[in-house]
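seq as requested:
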Amino acid sequence: MVVASIATFRPLRFESFTYGLYIFPEWANAVGWLICVSSMVAVPVLAIFHLVRFPGSLRQVRVIVLSCCVRRESFDKMTESILREK
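struct tokens:
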């Protein structure tokens, strides 16, 4: 969330980068911003891509994704409650 807000509001107050008295050209600033944005956009885009591509309903995908993050005992209880929601 913090990175998204910085990426959103920083260009609004944009000043050209300098090194001492040298002012970098606009194309160099654009390349820097493209590198920055490409690394931030990759994570949510790939997450959405894999959610759409994964077989099953969103509820089934949620169970599988959460299985990576939870201990086995907790996962069994959580899986039962999620599947009972139908």
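The first strand starts at residue 18 and ends at 19.
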